[in-house]
Amino acid sequence: MKRIILATTVLALGWPVAASAGGFGLGPGPGLTGNDTGGIITWSPEHQRVARPWAADHCAHYRKAARITSVRARYGDYIAFECYFPRYHHRRINTVHALD
Q: How many whole angstroms separate alpha carbon 48 and alpha carbon 73?
């Protein structure tokens, strides 16, 4: 019983702190910022080498694929990407079928 109370307390107190700090990798973070439509990655030689995997990982959270749309190879600029549904991707639609 004490373990359940302790676990509940830790989750209740720790969840807002982790979410506000970007602890889940969904919000602004070091190098990458975006949402379900795409995002930007700060440009540096190191970031340019890993931009595609970062973008793919980010878009995978939304079950989408990533496409790099622009690269400005200067410090202070960004690598932009978009998240999209691949061609012939069928989104699951919740429907209720009536019995015949």
A: 8
Token output for 47: 């970031």
Q: Is the model's pTM score more than 0.70? A: no
Q: State the amino acid at position 21 in one-letter form.
A: A
Residue listed under structure tokens 């878009």: 59
DSSP secondary structure string for all residues of 18-70? HHHTTTTSSSS-SSEEEETTEEEEE--HHHHHHHHHHHHHHHHTTT-EEEEEE
Tell me the per-residue pLDDT of 28-70, one tens digit each, with 9 for 90 and over: 457 899 999 999 999 999 999 999 999 999 999 999 999 999 9
